[in-house]
UniProtKB/TrEMBL annotation:
It holds the Pfam family Cmc1. Keywords: Coiled coil, Disulfide bond, Mitochondrion. The lineage of its organism: Eukaryota, Viridiplantae, Streptophyta, Embryophyta, Tracheophyta. Residues 55-82 form a coiled coil. It is found in: Mitochondrion. This is COX assembly mitochondrial protein. It comes from Cynara cardunculus var. scolymus (Globe artichoke). The keyword Transmembrane does not apply. GO terms for cellular component: mitochondrion. PROSITE patterns: CHCH. Belongs to the CMC family. InterPro entries: Cyt_c_biogenesis_Cmc1-like.
Length: 83
C-alpha cells in the first residue's frame, strides 16, 4: 500500500508517479498480472527516500527547537534566582 499519489505532495517522485499512473491506464487488466510491478518497486523506493529526507529535516528542526527551549528555561531560571 502506498500513500495517495498526488504530485504536489511528492515532488521527488513526480516522474515515477506519472509513469505508474500511465501504466495503469495503458494496461487495465495486465496490471493485475505484474505489468506495472517494476514501476511500483521504483515508486516504493522513491517514497522511502523521500521519507528519509523528511525525517532528517524534522530531526534537525526538533534539535533547534530543543536548544531554544533549553535556552529559554535557563534564562527563566536565572531571572528567578535574581529575584
Amino acid at each position: 500500500m502506498h500513500p495517495p499519489l498526488t504530485l504536489h505532495r511528492h515532488p521527488m517522485c513526480a516522474e515515477i508517479i506519472e509513469q505508474f499512473q500511465k501504466c495503469h491506464l495503458d494496461h487495465p487488466y495486465a496490471k493485475f498480472f505484474g505489468e506495472c510491478t517494476d514501476l511500483k518497486i521504483k515508486l516504493d523506493k522513491c517514497f522511502r527516500q523521500e521519507k528519509a529526507v523528511k525525517r532528517k529535516a524534522n530531526f534537525e528542526e526538533s534539535k533547534k527547537l530543543k536548544e531554544r527551549l533549553q535556552a529559554y528555561r535557563k534564562e527563566a531560571a536565572e531571572s528567578e534566582n535574581v529575584m
